[in-house]
Amino acid sequence: xxxxxxxxxxxxxxxxxxxxxxxxxxxxxxxxxxxxxxxxxxxxxxxxxxxxxxxxxxxxxxxxxxxxxxxxxxxxxxxxxxxxxxxxxxxxxxxxxxxxxxxxxxxxxxxxxxxxxxxxxxxxxxxxxxxxxxxxxxxxxxxxxxxxxxxxxxxxxxxxxxxxxxxxxxxxxxxxxxxxxxxxxxxxxxxxxxxxxxxxxxxxxxxxxxxxxxxxxxxxxxxxxxxxxxxxxxxxxxxxxxxxxxxxxxxxxxxxxxxxxxxxxxxxxxxxxxxxxxxxxxxxxxxxxxxxxxxxxxxxxxxxxxxxxxxxxxxxxxxxxxxxxxxxxxxxxxxxxxxxxxxxxxxxxxxxxxxxxxxxxxxxxxxxxxxxxxxxxxxxxxxxxxxxxxxxxxxxxxxxxxxxxxxxxxxxxxxxxxxxxxxxxxxxxxxxxxxxxxxxxxxxxxxxxxxxxxxxxxxxxxxxxxxxxxxxxxxxxxxxxxxxxxxxxxxxxxxxxxxxxxxxxxxxxxxxxxxxxxxxxxxxxxxxxxxxxxxxxxxxxxxxxxxxxxxxxxxxxxxxxxxxxxxxxxxxxxxxxxxxxxxxxxxxxxxxxxxxxxxxxxxxxxxxxxxxxxxxxxxxxxxxxxxxxxxxxxxxxxxxxxxxxxxxxxxxxxxxxxxxxxxxxxxxxxxxxxxxxxxxxxxxxxxxxxxxxxxxxxxxxxxxxxxxxxxxxxxx
Length: 716
Description:
A 6-stranded mixed β-sheet has the order 2-3-1-4-5-7, sandwiched between helices. Strands 6-8 form a two-stranded antiparallel ribbon. By secondary structure, the chain is of the alpha/beta class.
């Protein structure tokens, strides 16, 4: 007999441990972030040991009021595609706040199990919860678990399967008499307008906001009259009154449930936050932390750089190329194929993989900070700064995610309710250097700045500055005008991150990089080698001895003039910049092929000397500015298109990123060259004009746009 197929949905507040529990239940390699909004789409997996049971991971939300995109996703999934059961994950250290969502879930009439997470933390604090009493008051099973440690997970699974198979729905809790009468009157008015399934939930939704329900005009008028009368009687708006009723219920539910030692009035997290989120100390601490994060990644004396040097000089210098060359010679492989493998594939892919140790250091430190809860504070800290320039802390959350990769960072913009703010966030998120840009930073730092520790942090803060400047400029235009979206955020307690969680995060990010090196970078390296090795030499077309005579040199030379005002108008730099559009790592792999890094690595740091011939320190940093700020890789462009849901807005983002990067690099190179050499040229004049134009866009007066802004519908 075939076992019954079941679907169990996970619902809970951000930072409640929902995604951690999803990993425990399914064994999936789901990325875990310690800030709200990391899960913006439903994710699915099979319950371990029960292949017939599907676990759905819904977005982390605070309510089902469907005001934000993630709330709409969760609400629609639960109402339109009713699961067989819901596991509602509740943070036991913040019971009242988390139970607000529970009250709404119980109104849906779907079989529910409440999982009180972080029971281990409560025990350490000497606190106790009477789970039996809580279960009786909620009218559904309640299980105390630790998602992080995996305790009592089997008990939770057993209860969830039991309620899912029985189909027994919890009884909705009763509000005070006056509000229950309002619900009864609304029920009589709406009648057949509301579906019988989950009727009580839809009644409260209709009272809060009836517009999405498409009610009949007559029913809508009667409902509006009922609501207006109740608001006048209670002297408050209906949304506030419903919120009050739910919290009044929560107070009744939790009364007498807690026992044991009373929690300290000031927790350890609060004590730390007095310093870390201090009005005056928060930003300096953030600057120091991020300087250490990126500085450690490329620091010449750091572990990442030490291993990178070994990989470049030994593994892809003294070991792999000679071994492969000897093997190819013994096999009698043709010279052109040897060149393709050695100078194309090994040189290109090896040049990128050489920076993997530095990236692992970056990912490790970031994963640790995410696990402790500090990165959640960063969004809170940056809200103070961003709000002055027309953005909110919500816009910084995608940028934090984007430090690993711009694609999920751009997708995380879905957590922003205001469309104009969401569009702006999508446009500027890729300004923050992602992991793929770290090899470019390390390349320039090593070749032109002697591996200086400050180069990488400066690139990160350059990204933040670009975001702030863009916020000022764009907020003064009609499509983006308006106050920033409100930012309310529940800060998770500080925790010592689990080693497994940190290592899994590092592995996923590093493996993604390696996978790209073995696919996109490999293919790109082959194409670059072919185009650089074929051309006209000595009056005939074929393989060339000098890459200067290759097709790639000709193609690069044809577009190099575009970048000449930026200080890198040579064909190699032009080619590297263009190939970087496919994947940012291609910038390094392109130089690896064009310079033949696989061969010169045997000579130690000769590659840096080769690169230094094409750049000055000023032009090298201008090269870095342009490649960090300009259009991201193809994958990120695809994410922009999905989130914008409009070709027009996608092209706007691409155009703005390109022009903005060009202007910044132009100003830096032209004025930097003037200040360092004293040479005043026509280019200097254009640099000054560009600077004046940029300052005008920043400091011009804000127009008052009264017309409401309409724009893109959120991506489905």
